[in-house]
TrEMBL record:
<feature type="transmembrane region" description="Helical">
    <location>
        <begin position="79"/>
        <end position="100"/>
    </location>
</feature>
<comment type="similarity">
    <text>Belongs to the membrane-bound acyltransferase family.</text>
</comment>
<dbReference type="GO" id="GO:0071617">
    <property type="term" value="F:lysophospholipid acyltransferase activity"/>
</dbReference>
<dbReference type="GO" id="GO:0030258">
    <property type="term" value="P:lipid modification"/>
</dbReference>
<keyword id="KW-0012">Acyltransferase</keyword>
<feature type="transmembrane region" description="Helical">
    <location>
        <begin position="365"/>
        <end position="391"/>
    </location>
</feature>
<comment type="pathway">
    <text>Phospholipid metabolism.</text>
</comment>
<dbReference type="InterPro" id="IPR004299">
    <property type="entry name" value="MBOAT_fam"/>
</dbReference>
<keyword id="KW-0808">Transferase</keyword>
<feature type="transmembrane region" description="Helical">
    <location>
        <begin position="40"/>
        <end position="58"/>
    </location>
</feature>
<dbReference type="GO" id="GO:0016020">
    <property type="term" value="C:membrane"/>
</dbReference>
<feature type="transmembrane region" description="Helical">
    <location>
        <begin position="449"/>
        <end position="468"/>
    </location>
</feature>
<keyword id="KW-1133">Transmembrane helix</keyword>
<keyword id="KW-0472">Membrane</keyword>
<dbReference type="InterPro" id="IPR049941">
    <property type="entry name" value="LPLAT_7/PORCN-like"/>
</dbReference>
<feature type="transmembrane region" description="Helical">
    <location>
        <begin position="112"/>
        <end position="134"/>
    </location>
</feature>
<keyword id="KW-0812">Transmembrane</keyword>
Length: 487
């Protein structure tokens, strides 16, 4: 037992702190005034940082304060760019500071720093996006042609607002304890709505929290079982290298299964921290989306009376990070990426993908930022940067065989695609877990880097099959303009 506790001490402390945050939620929700609630949340958040990080607590606290200072001292027109480069620059120094003699920080401090980066950069882009949206609306009012603007916005169809919080409000948003340990990411608008809209008073927080938490014991049990039966370090041993090739090929399935259960446990507990406090609750008619919140009718929701709020039906989709069933069952890697850590996926899409100025490089920019946000280890590049190349081949077969299939044929093809998707994710996850280049190379060499060859063969074969199918399809007769006029 002592050996088990010593081995998993960091995870035990982290899960314990998440559970404490869950239990704090109902008391936090009942605080009388907005100011008392904001200050209590920030003080608790800073205490969590100090408990988790010890001497390293100065990094997330200092970077957060400096980041929001940059937001308020720069103009709303460009604060998002300067904040982005400062926060990721600080993240770079924070992680590689040991090379110049700075004391290394713990993995838990790294997780908190990652969340601070998401919040500070996210709110800067949110402010700039609202400014662009308002400017666009004013331009349309003056423009008689009402031509569509290409400015990137996150506006709802019936509501516009300029988001420009004061320094103290940015401070409370950055350091509030809800979601600080491991997410989920939520917008400043969601945070502000929590204090000024009545939803948290009327949503069944206890019922939602119990429903979210009910699977956590299973996830933890499966994680402990998988990680003990198939430990990560075994993959680097000579005994593993001398085992049957099929065993070596399938070993990452067990590693990725254990990793998924660990992520499910942490993310589910993080969601329950939000639900127990009531943050992220919106009426279902808002068609709420992870990270964003309501996507339609936001103005009507803001004007909802207490009586209407009391009768409304709610959900916590705004703070939903993991679609566990989707992660286990979706057929394609493209779908899998959409249901895995959805809050961070939303942040990457809104901050990087939709805002990057060069269309052909949007995907590469999003992947690069995702990699450096996770860390600078080679394993992250091997894992994350492989995704679009697999998706290239997958898309071809999806369109050729799965998209229009029906009945048993669709089920069989779906199972094959699910198996290949799961195998690809497991192969990539091995690199993600092994981290360093030398460790990744040891495992990939033990299986002769076979999956890259398989993927390349699939891609080439798919391109050939796609070309053959296009050649065999009967060409539609072209209709001339003269024939159209005659008709």
């Amino acid at each position: 037992m002592l050996a088990f506790i010593t081995k998993n001490l960091n995870d035990i402390i982290y899960l314990s702190l998440l559970l404490i945050c869950v239990f704090v939620g109902p008391y936090y929700r009942k605080l009388d005034t907005i100011e008392s609630k904001k200050w209590a949340g920030s003080i608790l958040g800073i205490l969590l940082i100090i408990i988790v990080s010890g001497n390293g607590a100065s990094h997330p606290i200092m970077s957060g304060l400096m980041g929001i200072s940059i937001i308020k001292t720069d103009t709303i027109k460009r604060c998002h760019v300067t904040t982005f480069f400062f926060m990721f620059g600080y993240l770079f120094v924070f992680r590689l500071g040991y090379l110049i003699g700075l004391p290394p920080s713990s993995g838990q401090t790294n997780l908190i720093e990652m969340i601070i980066v998401l919040r500070v950069v996210g709110v800067a882009f949110e402010m700039n996006g609202s400014w662009l949206a308002v400017a666009e609306a004013k331009k349309k009012e003056l423009d008689s042609t009402k031509a569509e603007s290409k400015l990137p916005t996150e506006r709802d169809d019936d509501f516009l607002e300029l988001i420009n919080p004061e320094f103290i409000d940015l401070f409370h948003y950055t350091f509030n304890y809800i979601g600080l340990l491991t997410g989920p990411y939520y917008r400043y608008r969601t945070f502000n709505d929590y204090f000024h809209l009545p939803y948290s008073k009327y949503v069944d927080c206890f019922g939602f929290t119990i429903n979210i938490l009910r699977m956590v014991p299973l996830y933890i049990s499966l994680y402990l079982a998988f990680s003990n039966l198939w430990p990560l370090e075994y993959i680097l041993t000579e005994e593993h290298n001398n085992s049957h090739f099929l065993y070596r090929m399938l070993y990452p399935w067990a590693l990725f299964a254990a990793f998924r259960q660990r992520i499910y446990s942490g993310m589910t507990l993080a969601e329950s921290v939000c639900s127990s406090a009531g943050l992220g609750a919106y009426p279902v008619q808002g068609r709420n989306r992870t990270g964003h919140g309501p996507t339609v009718g936001y103005l009507k929701l803001k004007k909802m009376s207490d009586k209407e709020a009391q009768m409304a039906e709610y959900d916590f989709k705004t703070v939903e990070s993991m679609d566990v069933w989707g992660c286990e069952t979706v057929v394609t890697l493209r779908e899998s990426m959409k249901v895995w850590n959805k809050a961070v996926q939303y942040w990457v899409a809104m901050v990087v993908y939709k805002r990057f100025p060069v269309n052909n490089l949007k995907m590469h920019a999003a992947l690069f930022v995702s990699v450096i946000w996770h860390g600078f280890h080679a394993g992250y590049f091997f894992c994350i940067y492989f995704c679009p190349f697999y998706v290239m081949a997958e898309d071809i077969y999806y369109k050729l065989y799965y998209k229009d299939a029906t009945g048993m044929k669709k089920k069989i093809i779906g199972f094959i695609m699910w198996f290949l998707r799961s195998h690809s994710e497991s192969y990539q996850a091995a690199a993600f877990l092994l981290l360093t280049f030398d460790r990744v190379w040891i495992y990939y060499s033990s299986v002769y880097h076979y999956w890259y060859g398989v993927w390349l063969s699939f891609l080439i074969l798919g391109l050939i099959l796609n070309k053959v199918r296009a050649m065999l399809q009967p060409k539609q007769p072209r209709v001339s303009k003269t024939d159209t006029l005659k008709e």
